[in-house]
Amino acid sequence: MYSDFHVHTAFSSDSEAAPEAQLEKAVSLGMKEICFTDHQDLDFPPGELDFLLDTPAYVPAVQQLQNAWKGRIQLRLGVELGLQPHLGSRLPKYVDTYPFDFVIGSTHVSRRLDPYEPAFFQDIAEEEAYRLYFEEELENLRKYDCFDVAGHIDYVLRYGAHGGDRDPLDAYGDVLDEILRTLIDKGKGLECNTAGLRSRCGVTNPSPSVLLRYREMGGEILTLGSDAHDPKDLGSRFPELRDLLAACGFRYYTVFRERKPYFLPL
Fold first, then answer.
1. On the chain, which terminus has fewer CB atoms closer than 10 Å, C or N?
2. 29 burial via Cβ count (<10 Å: 0-12, 13-18, 19+)
């Protein structure tokens, strides 16, 4: 079973999963390695959840688990870092403070709204909301270097009423191409996230056409993540990825150790 490099635990404010339960599920699936990537979203819009990570408690807890589970599974220390243009030097300073193996750079907020909230699509045409999200994501990826891969780059499509109805390259190919080009030029990678298969959009994030475009443009760094907030979703739909990614031209996927990519055969 492929290594899952997008896993949440109760250290994320939107998860109640015990870290040990996530590890047990990974072992039961035959995974040799996983990475916890709990949420750190500085200045997240006010709401029920703050998405702030208690990193001083998180890091030693993961390190303790690494030792306790040694010989059963390799656990990597990661974080899913929320990118917003105005956060400036706060993000690289944060990343440099801790010994992360892996950093996902994700855009969870556009126009100071999370697409998960219904308000994101109110008083705006759905296609305009998508485009504004992609444009802000491009700004984030151009601005920051303190991440290893871009997470679920079409995250916004999970939550719109018609997000899975069209190939995103048809309507937003210009900005998506710039996003992919920016990642490749910076030596950053892309995530193939299977949570989209569990959402209304019904495809991976990003969609297969975007994965294909990334490979055609020369992109090689590709991590696999379930985005599991519950053990039942860890490794979700991973068996389907071999054929999908092979059809897109990939022969390898990527894991990270001490912020360095390692390529494993599909």
1. N
2. middle
C-beta of residue 52 within 8 angstroms of C-beta of residue 41: yes
Q: Dig out the tokens for 96 from the structure.
A: 């440099």
pLDDT tens digits, one per residue of 80-126: 999 999 999 999 999 999 999 999 999 999 999 998 888 999 989 99
Distance separating alpha carbons of residues 246 and 263, to the nearest angstrom: 15
Residue written as token pair 């871009």: 150
State pTM to two decimals.
Answer: 0.96
Q: Do the Cβ atoms of 6 and 193 come closer than 8 Å?
A: yes
Q: What is the 3-state secondary structure (H, E, C) of 187-219?
A: CCEEEEEHHHHHCCCCCCECCHHHHHHHHHCCC
Q: What is the largest CA-CA distance in the chain?
A: 54
Q: Residue 148: which pLDDT band, with cuts at 50, 70 and 90? A: very high
